[in-house]
Task: inverse folding
């Protein structure tokens, strides 16, 4: 099997063996309302915002999945939570439209009048035209969501934080995957979701922790099955790849189809003439792109930017994602033709540019300027050739030559070359006239 994990262990011996992290959610993670509020208040504002974001997303998914409001004119918009809700202290911040204080306030919007109403779960049946059975089902679903989110608060309360050791090991698996001839497709949503938690140093869902382990195992299996042993890695290259990966994952262009397919077709986003039509990049496209990059490499920043914009304008038929091209430009400015540039761009571009680099351009012979000596040598050789031809011509003639002809030949040899050329020209003209 490929030794890439052994290589990782040598590079990062302290984090290769992962720290303990719970692997299974249990009823022990469920919190009382009081404990839930208490732990929530210990979170940073960014952590609180992320928790609320996930709660809203899960509740919205609950409504859409079960079509709770299909028979009414209302659609779910958001849910607000009053984490300071306290009946004993009479501390209230959210209210139902009827005036009742609420822990959870549901905001719904009319598809007809666009009017918004704010309700507690207990008033759904009264105001939305749905049965009490459905209202109770919604309440049960929301309670299950709260129990799922309790898992994060439970982990936080017990001192768990973001599993940085697992994240780096996962990134190294992606690094190895990126060099395979047939890489596996990673779970993009999982990676981007976990990255959100990393940025605020929040523990992740237990299910997501296990999913990252599964992603690493997928790469391990692919390495084993394809038997690709020629893996040469550099720790500095990986560290740069790791830093770039964190930024790239946040972007819309970071898609498995873009980065791991060796070949694919796409609909150009800038070329209206190709609307609805799929195109594919060809060999000459990469040769042209390579030529551009070589020009940018030699140019200053301003000129390089002009060259790149001109290329984009000229090649709109090739643009699948404009942000993706600007990412490649930024990476090239940072790394030029070094390994991190090729690792950071989609596989189809990497392979295409590497093939273009192997294409040998025809060597053009450049004529050297003639020196005076060269000219004299050429003229001498020419004169010798002419004399040889004359001698050869003489040997082929009949031996009998009139004295007048000999005299004419003697005179001819004493005339300079310029006059010889003039006389010869007139002689040939007279022959042609005759």
Result:
């Amino acid at each position: 099997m490929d030794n890439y994990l052994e290589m990782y262990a040598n590079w990062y011996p302290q984090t290769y063996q992962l720290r303990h992290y719970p692997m299974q959610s249990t009823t022990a993670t469920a919190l009382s309302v009081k404990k839930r509020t208490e732990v929530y208040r210990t979170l940073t504002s960014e952590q609180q915002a992320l928790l609320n974001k996930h709660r809203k997303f899960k509740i919205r998914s609950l409504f859409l999945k079960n079509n709770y409001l299909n028979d009414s004119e209302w659609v779910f918009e958001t849910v607000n939570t009053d984490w300071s809700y306290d009946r004993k202290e009479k501390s209230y911040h959210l209210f139902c439209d009827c005036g009742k204080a609420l822990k959870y306030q549901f905001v719904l919007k009319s598809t007809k009048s666009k009017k918004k109403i704010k309700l507690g779960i207990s008033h759904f049946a009264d105001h939305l035209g749905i049965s009490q059975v459905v209202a109770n089902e919604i309440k049960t679903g929301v309670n299950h969501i709260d129990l799922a989110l309790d898992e994060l608060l439970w982990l936080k309360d017990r001192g768990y934080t973001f599993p940085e050791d697992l994240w780096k090991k996962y990134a190294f698996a992606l690094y190895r995957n990126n060099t395979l001839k047939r890489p596996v497709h990673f779970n993009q949503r999982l990676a981007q979701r976990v990255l959100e938690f990393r940025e605020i140093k929040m523990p992740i869902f237990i299910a997501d922790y296990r999913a990252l382990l599964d992603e690493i195992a997928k790469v391990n299996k692919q390495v084993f099955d394809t038997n690709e042993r020629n893996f040469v890695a550099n720790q500095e290259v990986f560290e740069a790849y790791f830093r770039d990966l964190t930024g790239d994952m946040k972007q819309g262009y970071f898609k498995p189809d873009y980065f791991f397919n060796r070949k694919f077709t796409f609909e150009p986003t800038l070329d209206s003439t190709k609307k609805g039509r799929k195109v594919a990049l060809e060999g000459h496209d990469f040769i042209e792109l390579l030529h551009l990059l070589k020009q940018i490499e030699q140019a200053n920043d301003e000129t390089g930017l002009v060259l790149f914009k001109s290329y984009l304008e000229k090649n709109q038929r090739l643009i699948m994602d404009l942000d993706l091209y600007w990412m490649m430009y930024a990476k090239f400015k940072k790394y030029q033709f070094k390994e991190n540039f090729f690792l950071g761009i989609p596989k189809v571009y990497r392979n295409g540019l590497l093939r273009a680099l192997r294409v040998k351009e025809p060597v053009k012979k450049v004529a050297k300027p003639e020196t005076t000596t060269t000219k004299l040598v050429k003229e001498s050789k020419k004169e010798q050739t002419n004399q040889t031809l004359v001698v050869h011509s003489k040997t082929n003639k009949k031996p009998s030559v009139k004295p007048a002809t000999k005299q004419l030949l003697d005179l001819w040899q004493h005339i300079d070359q310029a006059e010889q050329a003039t006389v010869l020209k007139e002689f040939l003209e007279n022959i042609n006239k005759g």
Q: What stands out?
A: Residues 281-358 form one domain. The CA atoms of residues 167 and 212 lie 8 Å apart.
